[in-house]
Design a protein that fits this description.
13 strands, Dna Ligase, domain 1, about 300 residues, alpha+beta, Rossmann fold, four-stranded antiparallel β-sheet, about 35% helix, six-stranded antiparallel β-sheet
Length: about 300
């Protein structure tokens, strides 16, 4: 895989979402890897340049390193298809569906894929009744945000309303979700191949924005330390969860493994972090795939629907 195969590549980074800073880091890591591999790649920030410039500047492909809204929710994918520029990752429908945690759950529910119990919340919801229905503690979160932005763990039923108000600042669609006690796991998928599972241990009791990006106390284990048979079962169910949403190219599926050995899928990410310390590159390294090779592999799978 060389420059001749890929032509001129735009690395889409930054953007307008609440995850802009993380996207800038992901994009820079991807850009560096492509340049070091001899690919004719350039950074392109949709927040600073019109997307029409992608065509005018003669880009042949796009590596999407955008996170969150306008990056992994189907909008940029739709523009790229309109422009006829092949891009990395999932298509319009799968991107939009995976970004919406409520509709993801509905699809998984229909497919028999276990996910924590939930209810949608509105301004006039009976918040204390929701807490009684789902049990405490529970998670309140915007349905269409990433990186746990706007997420709260609620331990007292009188705090549900405030948690709803926080989440509603980020999205009109808010979820209340049963809190599952267990091990935080993530399964990266490259093409149709699940990579080794990453197990996450946080210093507190919640893998939130601070634990993901700011804390030095969060620990990651890959290999995960799970029994081989259990790891394989989780990988295969993660692949099914990924497929039923229509995802392709690459992605990541997050889940919780409880003490009884049951696993509950939380969400799918169609444009995961790609810094050198992110979870997909970590899983790839364990599988013997260096970062630069991972980036080229993802780019090689770029497509137009």
């Amino acid at each position: 895989m060389t420059e001749r195969n890929f032509g001129k590549v735009a690395v889409l980074l930054g953007g307008r979402s609440a995850e802009r800073e993380i996207s800038l880091q992901s994009g820079q890591a991807v850009l560096t890897a492509l340049l070091e591999s001899g690919v004719d790649a350039q950074a392109f920030d949709p927040a600073q340049q019109s997307l029409e410039m992608l065509k005018q500047q003669g880009f042949d492909r796009a590596f999407i390193a955008l996170h969150g809204r306008f990056g992994e929710d189907g909008t940029i994918q739709g523009v790229l298809e309109w422009l006829g520029i092949p891009y990395t990752g999932s298509g319009v429908m799968a991107s939009a569906l995976a970004m919406d945690k409520w509709r993801t759950k509905l699809v998984w529910q229909a497919a028999g894929i276990r996910s924590p119990r939930f209810e949608t919340l509105q301004e006039n919801s009976h918040f204390e009744q929701v807490a009684e229905n789902l049990g405490l503690p529970l998670i309140i979160k915007p349905a269409r945000e990433g990186s746990t932005i706007g997420l709260s763990k609620v331990r007292h039923k009188e705090d549900v309303a405030a948690a709803y108000q926080l989440a509603a600042q980020h999205d009109a669609l808010v979820l209340a979700e049963e809190f599952i006690v267990g091990k935080e796991l993530t399964v990266a998928i490259l093409g149709e191949t699940p990579l080794p599972i990453v197990r996450i241990e946080v210093a507190g009791d919640l893998y939130d924005y601070e634990a993901k990006y700011l804390s030095d106390a969060t620990q990651y284990f890959c290999p995960s330390g799970l029994p081989a048979e259990q790891e394989k079962a989780i990988q295969q169910q993660a692949l099914q969860a990924y497929r039923v949403l229509g995802c392709q190219g690459w992605g990541r599926v997050d889940l919780i493994l409880d003490a009884a050995g049951e696993f509950y899928f939380l969400e799918a990410n169609t444009s995961p972090g790609m810094t050198n310390h992110s979870l997909v590159p970590m899983a790839a390294r364990t599988a013997g795939i260096p970062f630069a090779e991972l980036v080229l592999n993802i780019l090689d799978r770029s497509h137009v629907e």
